[in-house]
Hints:
The complex is a heterodimer of chains A (254) and B (386). Chain A has 254 residues and is an alpha/beta fold.
Amino acid sequence: MGEPADGNGATAEAMVDVRSVSRTFHRGRTPVPVLKELSLRMEKGEFLALMGPSGSGKSTLLNLVAGLDRPTGGEVIVGGSPIHRLSERKLAAWRARNIGFVFQFSNLLGALSAERNVAVPLLLTAFSSRERRRRVDIALEIVGLSERGKHRPRELSGGEQQRVGIARALVNDPMLLVCDEPTGDLDRATSAEILDLLVALNRDHGKTILMVTHDPVAAERASRTLHLEDGRLAECGHDGTVVVPVHEPAGAAV
Amino acid sequence: MSTFTLISAALRRKKTRTFLTFSSVVFAFLIFGVLSMLQTAFSMGVDIANEDRLVVRHRVSLFQLLPQSYEADMEEIPGVVDAMHFTWFGGVYQDPANFFMQSPVEPAEYLDMYPEVSVPEAAKLRWIETRNGAIAGRALVERFGWEVGDRIPLQPTIWQQEGRGDEAWEFELVGIYESDVEGFDETQFLFRYDFFDEARSFGRGQIGWFAVRVSDPDRAPQVAAAIDDTFRNSAAETKSESEGAFAAGFANQVGNLGLIVTSILAAVFFTILLVAGNTMAQSVRERVGEIGLLKALGFTAARVQRLVLMESVALVTTAGFLGMVLAVGLERVLRPALAAYFPGLFLRPEDLLLGLGLAVVTGLVVGIFPARRAMRLETAMALRRL
């Protein structure tokens, strides 16, 4: 566990510093505010689970932190970079270097082998083919699939496919892993394996992880859990009860 | 692992659909190649027409006769270097289906007028010595398996021999002509005019049309007008035109081939645009989530656009190239087999290049709209389709 969960008293070590962020969508001409002046702080090396009912804005917040979306207001600083100010092109390059994505469905390219799927993000780098090869081997080794690299996705189990997805997220050695319901499509036993892997990545490899989940069992494995509801964040105990209201009006730190 | 691996993966995603689209494009370009060959065959006379030669025929039609004496008159007209004449003979060799062009000519004049025709010296002498001697083009000789020295009977359909009724004309093959000019007609059968004129039962001193060489190709239209003026208000008025215009008119008796071929090709390529365009559009629609994933991983919108465009170009261009290669292969088979019927049946290098260029352009056109759609996809929205 690290520093307090949120607030604006960011230190230099903060991996994620979301400051008074708002995100409003439009349904026709009607504005639909999803996030309202929300603040969140994540330290380097933290494994944070984000829970909340459907439509609460979990994925919207995740997208903002991962540089997939832009806030309507406020600031999003990740790894010291104010990513809300970056152009589309620079934001894409930033994502390629700094963010590893794990999705609910691994969404591997069916025509490519596991190792080629893992190598896709490396197409955006200037690494030599030898270096690419080395990184793919390491990523597959970390997820325990060194022997399955030549297999096509259809020849792998659901859990193995998700591991390949995680290896793809790791191959560029990103500073932040964002996981959107990584166990949502898996059975209980396979979910546990994937969560073990994420915990190991956090504990042994120092990866900072932000995970959105509906599953309290999955959230239990994180070092900290935040609950998002009605645009407000609250810190939860491991029994799922909200123990500390963490959202205050802009400018106020807890 | 390269960008091409991704393109290849996208194309292999729905193998059957890709195969069907690929095959339709291959077939379209094969049709393009074959139609180009046919057009070349029919217009060959136009393409290889000599700029310094005119054709002078009866003003009414090619089949009305002109006095042979016009030749001397024409050679007096300023700008005319030389003139010689042909006459449509229209004989039948064994079977009416064995059609080929036959004409009496004056050997020396013919060979002077057509320097692109090559006949062995010995054959030339033999032709001049032999009254019923004839020469034939290489393709014609090979078609019927003739050899020099053979007697060739031609059953008359127009020109009967004096006092012999329907009896066949008999010619002796004294030589074979060839030409280095690509597509030159090597299917003609040419025999001596003096023999023909003396033996025919009617129309002595009358010929079909003249070939006229002018001294300055730039002044050919004026010379043609001067020739027609010379014979205006005579019993047999003339119509003079360039050899190219004459050949085009002859080819267009079948119809406006250029227009027909262009119309068919336009229909074929329009269909291909729809077929391949639909494939690409469908492919992008199905891959919205995948495209969102690539964007999330850091692929820029421009890069995603390029990927889809390259996919389309790779599909259509590869298929187009294969279609053109098949057309070349077909040409290798058809050209010798049909040389006696279509002497100009071949795929010109410019048509080959045009086909390859069309393949690239079609690939770009087909891919541009799906590529733009892929480029504009919002990453966060697209990821919801995962």
